Amino acid sequence: MKQERVILSFIFVLIGLLVAGILFYFYQSTKVVNNAPSNVTSSPTPTVGAKSNIFITLNQPTDEVVVDNKTLQISGKTITNATIVIITDSNQFVLQPTSQGNFSTTVTLDNGQNLITIQAIAQNGETVSVKRTVTYSTENF
Amino acid sequence: MKKIIFIFNALFFGFLFVRASFATATLTPADTNILQKISNEIASKTASLNLIEKRGIIGNVTDYSDTQITLSDLNNNTRFVDVDELTKFSSPTSASFGISDIKKGMTLGILGLYNKQSRRILARDVNVLSLPNTIIYGAISATDNTNFELTIIKEGGAKTIAEVEDITKTYLYSLGELSKSGFSKITPPQTAVVIGIPDKQNPDKIVASSIIVFPDISINPKINLFIQSENSIVPSTGSGRKLTPIVK
């Protein structure tokens, strides 16, 4: 009688382990790993001046960026009716933003480091400016 | 009963031991593929973190050694730049410029690899730059037709003299159009942006390379032109008799 119980116990344990093993195998093989990119998106950090009314937010370029294209787009947002002055090492550009305050233009970069100043001037004379260092280089390292 | 428990435990732990040993001892091709995928995933995630990226900065040298340059950048932040045997140096005035030629106060352009964790740049190119242009925004309060100079009043009342040279380009921005202008067409007070190079002998003076005048834009309310001109006005009592300061 005792011997039968031992054998039965042994058999049940083996069956239990076998079932657990099978279930574990199916769980591992059917588990779906989510490789989809995270929904967290990074938005450009606005650069807002310390003035009360006038502001300027640059979408691009980011500061200290290295580019391999001589043509650089500068875009951002300011108040409506502001005047935007873009000053590079070798040129100056003046433009008006759209009725929503958006502005965009392209400038040509010199070789190496380019210091670009973007200044917004309100009709009442208040102003705010931001600076960006943009490096043109095609060097690979 | 004790025997049953003993046998059960022996079987259970024996099974676990055999299974663990088997799992670590052999790697099937499928396992290798999974490991490869995991390592690729880790590598791509590390790259996506962008711990290292190309950057270019401009700054003035505050300290230097054989392996490091300390700069004060345009925002007055201290930046540490490492140099190694692969770092290239160049200067517009010297063909054999090297790290030993770097002096305090020099303006350098650094191109290199920026480590976001250590916040240091490993320089690949170090260039000596000329002083960046000075940009002055303010109101033109007076013109000197003899010396061809403009007096610019900035926010806070600071005064700068802008020297106009033959090479100075003068523009007028009105009604959305930028047009060429001249010194004689400047009629103070007017809002202006002056770009130029600082005069080494006079810190309150710049040699203008470009002047953009904005006649349609009001004078900044924070600029008080009256303060600058009141010294030249001799106060009067109204009876024709002028008051003069008492000199002891």
Written overview of the protein:
The complex is a heterodimer of chains A (141) and B (248). With 141 residues, chain A is an alpha+beta fold. Chain A folds into two domains: 1-35; 56-136, Sandwich (Immunoglobulin-like), CATH 2.60.40.10. In chain A, 21% of the residues lie in helices and 37% in strands. The N and C termini of chain A lie far apart (80 Å). Chain B is α+β, with helices and mostly antiparallel strands and 248 residues long. Chain B is built from three helices and twelve strands, in the order ααββββββββββββα. At the A-B interface, helix 1, strand 4, strand 7 and strand 8 of A face helix 1, strand 1, strand 5, strand 6 and strand 7 of B.
Largest sheet data of chain A: 5 strands, mixed
Low-confidence stretches of chain B: 228-234
- Which sequence of strands runs across the widest sheet of chain A? 2-8-7-4-5
State the share of residues found in helices of chain A, binned by percent: 10-25%
CATH superfamily of the largest domain in chain A, please? Immunoglobulins
Summed up, the domain count of chain A is: 2
Level-1 CATH class name of the largest domain in chain A:
Mainly Beta
* Shape label of chain A: elongated
Secondary structure tally, helices of chain A = 1
Straight-line N-to-C gap of chain A: 80 Å
Secondary-structure element string of chain A: HEEEEEEEE
CATH-derived architecture of the domain at 134-224 in chain B: Beta Barrel
Topology of this structure?
The complex is a heterodimer of chains A (141) and B (248).
Chain A: H1 2-30, E1 56-60, E2 65-67, E3 71-78, E4 83-87, E5 92-95, E6 102-108, E7 112-121, E8 127-136
Parallel strand pairs in A: 2-8
Antiparallel strand pairs in A: 1-3, 3-6, 4-5, 4-7, 7-8
Chain B: H1 2-25, H2 29-48, E1 52-64, E2 68-73, E3 78-82, E4 88-90, E5 107-115, E6 120-128, E7 134-144, E8 149-153, E9 159-174, E10 177-180, E11 190-198, E12 205-214, H3 225-229
Parallel strand pairs in B: 3-6, 4-6, 9-12
Antiparallel strand pairs in B: 1-2, 1-5, 2-3, 5-6, 7-8, 7-11, 8-9, 9-10, 11-12
